[in-house]
Amino acid sequence: MEKSREHNKPLCICFIDIQKAYDSVNRELLWKICRSYGLTDKTVLMLKLLYTNSKAQVRINDELSDSFDIETGVMQGGIPSPILFNILFDYIMRKVIEEANVEGIKLGYGTNDFFHTAKDIVDELNILTLMYADNVVVMCNNANDLEKFIKTFEKVTQEFGLTMSVKKTCIMSLKQLKEDSARRIIKDEEVDIPDIDIVIRNQKVDIVESFAYLECFVSRDQSPDEETFPND
């Protein structure tokens, strides 16, 4: 975001949340993906045994219900659970990225120190998504690519048994200023906000001015007063 603002480049961001992510994992599919990622049959069998005959009860008015089978999901608080979910989600996201076929934002980087000159090769990264647990940040330089990715994400995750929480998902476009014919920035004259109207399961994805991500607030104008850590 800082580089996009520094160079006055467009940036459309979507913060995506997965509804009950850990509880929705298709176990049989997870075991197949684990094998495809190189886990041995013995390791997969040991993991499966952790979930064999898993049951739960619900307490209502101080009385426990009859036990019932739990056939989906990974254990909340289980030591291997984050790794298992990451394996599944990595597989899903690769499918989404392949099918969406859109570019993210391009970031060039290189080295400039005692051993290297400024003319050394600069590598270019294409950053489309950032992922942490069940939260996804999507970054595109135009609204059309962002919409295509979100709709592809919805389609593919549904196929794998996961559901995007539209209520907790939102979109934000970075503030971009107009430029004159010499590409000089015109102060306080903002480029028109992109028209982003995305509907998922008859629910419109909210457009926001700021958002709290990983306990840090980010705003579309990157105001230092707003980009602070919450006190509570």
TrEMBL record:
Domain Reverse transcriptase: 1-200
Pfam families membership: RVT_1
Domain of life: Eukaryota
SUPFAM superfamilies: DNA/RNA polymerases
PROSITE patterns, sorted: RT_POL
PANTHER family assigned: REVERSE TRANSCRIPTASE DOMAIN-CONTAINING PROTEIN (PTHR47027), REVERSE TRANSCRIPTASE-LIKE PROTEIN WITH RNA-DIRECTED DNA POLYMERASE DOMAIN (PTHR47027:SF20)
Full protein name: Reverse transcriptase domain-containing protein
Source organism of this protein record: Rotaria magnacalcarata
